[in-house]
Specification:
The structure holds 2 protein chains of 2 kinds.
Chain A lengths: L1 H17 L17 E3 L2 E3 L1 E4 L5 E6 L4 E3 L2 E7 L5 E12 L2 E6 L6 E3 L12 E3 L12
Parallel strand pairs in A: 1-10
Antiparallel strand pairs in A: 2-9, 3-4, 4-8, 5-6, 6-7, 7-8
Chain B lengths: L3 H10 L4 H19 L12 E7 L5 H17 L4 E9 L2 E8 L5 H14 L12 E5 L7 E7 L4 H15 L5 E7 L4 E7 L1 H6 L4 H11 L1 E10 L2 E9 L4 H5 L2 E5 L2 E4 H4 E7 L5 E6 L10 E11 L5 H15 L8 E8 H56 L6 H31 L4 H27 L10 H4 L1 H28 L16 H15 L1 H20 L18 E7 L6 H15 L5 E8 L7 H6 L9 E8 L9 H18 L3 E5 L11 E6 L3 H17 L3 E6 L6 E7 L1 H7 L3 H12 L2 E6 L8 E6 L8 H4 L3 E3 L15 E3 L4 E7 L4 E4 L2 E10 L6 H13 L24 E6 H31 L3 H7 L1 H16 L5 H30 L4 H28 L8 H33 L1
Parallel strand pairs in B: 7-24
Antiparallel strand pairs in B: 1-3, 1-4, 2-3, 2-28, 5-14, 5-15, 6-14, 7-12, 8-9, 10-11, 13-14, 13-17, 16-18, 16-19, 17-18, 20-29, 20-30, 21-29, 22-27, 23-24, 25-26, 28-29
Classes of the chains: A mainly beta, B alpha+beta.
């Protein structure tokens, strides 16, 4: 009988002390991707408008529309593109005044095509002769 | 021997045919009750809370406060049952929140509130509009969120699909509020063309009025003719965009001007006012990196309904709707299902309950053999079956608190049966009497002390019912459930256990030698340990010294911060939220951009399954949001992200650890854009405004803000204090258009005309509804300038108002002349007035924060900051000593009070402390009544402080917080330990009455009672082990296990020793 109690107690305290520790899991790395060529990477332009207010301009061709939403593909520092939703102002000579969502100097995809998808890596097409590489 | 109640009951039932029938019936009703009782995760909390919105157009915050908020607050505090009154005075309106005491009847509170409001409406200033009252209840929190997202559809189409689905879902019984978050509504937009307006001599205001007038239809009456009646109707509603375009808004020369001549009419989505997106996270199997327009349909349940049943029905219905109401191309993803989590929680707890019962049975089996174990294994489920039945009858739901109460008592409810079965077993082994007689004698012998002991344990847990405040509903099912289970277990121990024991228990080996106590292991052990202590005074002192040292050593761990106090630790949930506040005046697209950037980071976190972000509208609220008014977060500068994690089983880290891990990066992104991001987790207990809240009072807003700034700085500098924020808007630039009254009067234009024209141009004006038959939501007709034409002050110059001429009574000029607005107003820049917050009739500025990392318990962070705050040098040379329990008595100088989780912690520990004191008194009274001695109870109660020797180091070993549940464990343990002493001393006295000498009696009874004491304590300990794995109830388990083990061992030595010293003198 005494033995049983002893075994119980030792087994029990082992169980007790074993619960409570924590470990930290590390974040996995990203895999390299092939870049998709786009015709042009434009820059968000800044100008001073007629009434002295600062206006931001993007090419009209760069706009992607999703029903009532308008956006552009912003190219990140790593070449990755992400949709940025913008608020539209007046159109002006093939360009659009952007009222909100962009900063001057940000790089955007100059011409929107439907094959672009969030998270793709893009690069500017250097010469016309090069074929557009299919992604994946 | 006197049979007592216990013996008589046992005699009555031990051979009765009714006993097995009763057992069967009890188990059956229990099973039925388990399925009938609604299941949910959180306990039902009734905290009537009412938001009252009082619009006062045009007033600045100070005026709103003085004219509306203050008088309302004063009258509302008069209502009995009101706990707190909060108010926020904002430009143009006041929000007053009334919080009733926990448990007040909701409907009665609403009626009282309404009556009080109406009584005082005559005192309100002219210009305020009808107050809007909204009741906020726990059942408003959606239990199911379905996110509609699509790769091809836009928010407008998504909303329409969600609306159609919502309409169908509403038909499901027991469903509560169904709401749609996000998406764009259908709207007929009249986009004014400034040039054309001027060219056609039509003003914006004129258009608004003309459309309103055109959109009317009326039954005029009827013609009576030839015994019949013909109904006459006139006018016609605007039924399409075409109708709206054909409204004649003016006459230019001789030609009518149609609306379509001067404006573009668009029937379609309203102007974008929110960005809601859905995306998959790293933990989903999807490689999809994109994010898709989304609309979330939220489903709340009706009070008392079963969340899991409702969720199941809704999902089933949605599956049916796919392809018809929900068009192909739209994916519906479950982004919250509290029904599922509730079921999961309940089944985990039921499983734990079962494991606890089995574990206890095994322990009993080791001591009493499998037959003894079987006796227990049958009696425990009967106890629980009856308790579950009472839960059902009392309208409790099966939630984590009610079920936890059962696990908590598993170890305790077996005790009565163990004691009885063990004694019957002993008597069978002694073979002094025939079996039937032996069983009854055995029950009589321990029956009465068992009854007393049961009542001491009930006395220990029951006072917890009186925990007040928000924690009350979390706590009260526990003592009630535990007490009920205890009473049932007692009845079963006296009725069922003898019946079972009589039939099942056998003594192995067949009667060899006569049972002799002096031959047992226990007797030898106690004789060896106790005898030297009885005989040697020095050894005795040494023993007491060692125990004293152990106790002191344990207690010192608390001031050393080796064991920290916290109210409740974080639970492991499957979600958390990020709340982003951009500076006031940030454009919606900018907020959306920052929100998206944070979301893009979050989706790379390995445990994140999916996320939805909501910019410009609030995410579906959770329990926290209810108290924090997150449902009002609908401004362009606010964004919410809902982060859904993979299920608990599939990840290593707890949700709190994940939240801690992502906080720094999330805040870094927000800071880059001057935003403030907070990680909001679902609170384990009652929700509060924030974990740490400093309420700053003072004579003026400036002084309050000055102090708040310093306090905020202290917060930011303290390690472990995170998510620092304050409830104070940033300076927002306001362009104030001041009307030049003289000039306006001269030109025949009224101030109202100017104000309305501006409103139409900028924020738009709803001029009516489109009368179409088949829309689920009303389609508004809105007049407004297009977005591209309202970007700067320059655009205002093109807006004209029409002179009213003679009609204005101020001028003799011709009416109808178009006057540019820029001629009538001048521009002033100013800073928007800040909102004024009040709590319980005092002006207050809140500084809020959370704790994570260096300190996890707000109390320690507060104490640390307390030192720094009291050292603050403030203008005027005064110092601030933060208050803890009550708001300052005077507001003459700035002062500060701690609130937030602290307030609840303080209330809970105060109430539990009081409960504990009451427990001690009741236990004392019970034992005095039983033993008819003032001294003996004190000896028995020595074991209560001894439990600390185990409890505190136990927390230290596990690295756990000493929480409210630890405290509950400690209180319950007091009852159990006293019961052990009662059984011990009761037997000593019986032996002494039989004429045994004192020392011999003590050693003998220690030996006899050790087995049941170790058995019952062992049952408590083993039954609690399973709770160690629950983050919230871990503290309780630690208290029960470590406290139980150590105080049992110490009780067996110390109590007999003290008893010996006390009795030695009297003999």
């Amino acid at each position: 009988m005494k033995k049983i109690i002893l075994i119980l107690i030792t087994a029990f305290s082992a169980v007790l002390t074993s619960c409570g520790g924590k470990e930290v899991k590390s974040v996995g790395g990203t895999k390299p991707e092939t870049a998709v060529a786009v015709e042009q990477i434009a820059t968000v332009e800044k100008r001073t408008g007629s009434s002295g207010t600062v206006e931001l301009l993007v090419p009209l061709e760069s706009i992607l529309s999703r029903g009532p939403l308008s956006g552009v593909y912003v190219v990140g520092s790593d070449g990755r593109i992400a949709v940025r939703w913008i608020s539209r102002g007046h159109e002006d000579n093939g360009r659009l005044i952007v009222l909100g969502g962009l900063d001057a100097g940000e790089r955007i995809v100059g011409k929107y095509t439907t094959r672009l998808e969030e998270g793709m890596v893009v690069k500017e097409q250097v010469s016309e002769t090069k074929e557009v590489q299919s992604h994946e | 021997m006197n049979e007592g109640i216990a013996g008589r009951l046992a005699k009555q039932f031990i051979n009765s045919k009714i006993t097995p029938l009763l057992m069967l019936a009890a188990i059956l009703v229990g099973i039925i009750a388990t399925f009938m009782t609604p299941r949910e995760e959180e306990p039902q909390i009734v905290v009537p809370m009412v938001d009252i919105y009082i619009p006062y157009p045009g007033a600045v915050p100070a005026e709103v406060e003085e004219r509306v908020a203050k008088p309302f607050e004063r009258t509302l505090t008069e209502i009995p049952g009101v706990d707190y009154v909060y108010s926020t005075s904002m430009p143009d309106f006041a929000l007053v929140t009334v919080r009733y005491k926990v448990g007040e009847d909701t409907e009665a509170s609403m009626v009282k509130l309404w009556a009080t409001l109406m009584k005082n409406m005559d005192k309100m200033p002219q210009g305020i509009q009808m107050p809007l009252m909204k009741k906020v209840a726990i059942d408003d929190v959606p239990v199911l969120n379905l996110t509609f997202w699509s790769k091809s559809k836009d928010p407008y189409q998504l909303r329409k699909a969600a609306l159609d689905a919502a309409d169908e879902l509403k038909k499901i019984p027991n469903i509560g509020d169904v709401e749609i978050k996000g998406g764009l509504k259908r709207q007929v937009r009249i986009l004014l063309d400034k040039e054309k307006l001027l060219g056609n001599n039509v003003s914006a205001l004129q258009i608004a009025r003309q459309v309103q007038m055109a959109n009317s239809q009326m039954t005029s009456g009827n013609f009576r003719q030839q015994n019949g009646e013909i109904i006459v109707k006139s006018g016609s509603f605007l039924e399409s965009a075409g109708d709206v375009g054909s409204v004649v808004v003016g006459v230019n020369g001789a030609a009518p001007v149609y609306l379509r001549d001067v404006a573009t009419i668009v029937d379609g989505p309203e102007e974008v006012n929110n960005y809601n997106f859905f995306g998959w996270g790293a933990a989903s199997n999807s490689k999809d990196q994109g994010e898709y327009p989304a609309v979330t349909l939220t489903v709340a349940k009706r009070k008392g309904a079963d969340a899991s049943v409702l969720a199941g029905k809704v999902i089933e219905k949605v599956d049916q709707l796919k392809g018809s109401v929900i068009p192909a191309g739209i994916t519906v993803t479950e982004t919250r299902n509290y029904g599922e989590t509730a079921t999961e929680k309940v089944s985990t707890l039921l499983e734990h309950l079962f494991i606890a019962i089995v574990a206890v049975t095994i322990v009993v089996g080791l001591f009493l053999g499998w037959r003894g174990a079987l006796v227990n294994f049958i009696s425990v489920p009967i106890t629980f079956a009856l308790t579950l039945l009472v839960y059902y009858l009392l309208h409790y739901s099966l939630n984590r608190v009610t079920l936890f109460a059962l696990i908590f008592v598993t170890g305790i409810v077996v005790d009565d049966s163990i004691i009885i079965a063990e004694n019957i077993h002993r008597h069978f082994a002694m073979k002094r009497q025939p079996r039937l007689q032996a069983a009854i004698t055995a029950v009589s012998e321990v029956g009465n002390p068992t009854i007393l002991a049961t009542f001491t344990v009930i006395a220990a847990v029951l006072p917890m019912v009186f925990v007040s405040g928000l924690m009350g509903p979390y706590m009260s099912p526990m003592p009630i459930g535990a007490s009920l289970a205890m009473i049932f277990s007692l009845l079963i121990a006296l009725i069922v256990t003898p019946w079972l024991s009589y039939r099942l228990l056998k003594v192995e080996g067949g009667g060899h030698d006569e049972y002799d106590i002096t031959k047992t292991v226990y007797y030898r052990m106690f004789r060896n340990v106790l005898s030297p202590l009885f005989d040697n005074g020095f050894m005795r002192l040494l023993a007491f010294g060692v125990v004293g040292l152990l106790l002191a050593g344990a207690i010192i761990l608390i001031p050393l911060k080796a064991v920290q106090m916290k109210m409740l630790p974080f639970d492991n949930k499957n979600e958390f939220q990020v709340i982003l506040d951009m500076p006031e005046g940030t454009a919606l697209e900018q907020t959306a951009r920052v929100t998206k950037e944070i979301a893009s980071y979050l989706k790379t976190v390995p445990e994140v399954k999916s996320y939805q972000y909501y910019a410009g509208t609030n995410a579906p609220i959770n329990f926290n949001g209810l108290v924090r008014h997150y449902y009002l977060r609908q401004a362009p500068n606010m964004g919410d992200i809902q982060v859904n994690l993979v299920l608990k089983g599939e990840r290593k880290d707890q949700s709190h650890d994940i939240a801690k891990r992502v906080r720094a990066e999330v805040q870094k992104i927000a800071m880059k854009y001057n935003g403030n991001a907070k990680i909001v987790e679902i609170p384990p207990g009652p929700p509060v405004l924030s974990t740490i809240v400093a309420e700053i009072y003072g004579p003026s807003q400036e002084e309050q803000i000055a102090l708040a700034k310093q306090v905020k700085k202290v917060f930011q500098e303290t390690p472990g204090v995170v998510d620092v924020d304050w409830m104070l808007e940033d300076d927002q630039k306001v362009v104030n258009l001041v009307i030049n009254k003289e000039r306006a009067a001269f030109r025949g234009v009224s101030a109202e005309q100017i104000a309305q024209t501006l409103r139409i141009s900028l924020s738009g004006m709803d001029v009516g509804v489109l009368h179409t038959g088949n829309e689920k939501e009303p389609v508004m007709i809105q007049v407004r300038l297009p977005q591209s034409d309202r970007t700067s002050l320059k655009d205002l110059s093109g807006i004209f108002v029409q002179s009213q001429g003679m009609g204005s009574l101020t001028t003799r000029l011709r009416a109808g002349e178009m006057i540019p607005l820029s001629e009538l107003v001048k521009i002033e820049d100013k800073i928007q007035d800040k909102s004024i917050y009040r709590k319980d009739l005092r002006r207050v500025v809140y500084v809020t924060a959370d704790v994570a990392g260096a300190t996890e318990s707000p109390v320690y962070a507060m104490l640390e900051m307390d030192k720094k705050i009291s050292q603050l040098k403030l203008p005027g040379g005064y110092t601030v000593n933060p208050l803890y329990t009550a708001p300052p008595s005077s507001e003459k100088k700035p002062s500060m009070k701690w609130d937030g989780e602290w307030q609840i912690t303080f209330e809970v520990f105060r109430d539990l402390g009081t409960a504990f004191a009451v427990v001690l008194v009741i236990i004392y009274l019970l034992i005095v009544g039983w033993f008819q001695s003032f001294k003996t109870p004190l000896i028995m109660m020595i074991s209560i402080p001894l439990s600390l020797v185990g409890i505190i180091p136990g927390h230290w070993i596990h690295g756990a917080f000493f929480t409210a549940t630890s405290m509950i464990g400690m209180i319950a343990l007091a009852g159990i330990m006293v019961r052990n002493s009662v059984l011990l001393i009761d037997f000593i006295q019986i032996r002494r009455e039989e004429g045994v000498e004192l020392k011999q009696a003590i050693i003998e009874s220690a030996a006899v009672r050790t087995r049941p004491i170790i058995l019952t304590s062992g049952a408590v300990v083993i039954g609690s082990v399973i709770m160690l794995f629950d983050p919230i109830f871990q503290g309780l388990a630690i208290s029960m296990i470590w406290g139980g083990v150590l105080s049992t061992v110490l009780t067996l030595v110390v109590v007999p020793l003290v008893y010996y010293i006390a009795e030695k003198k009297s003999t």
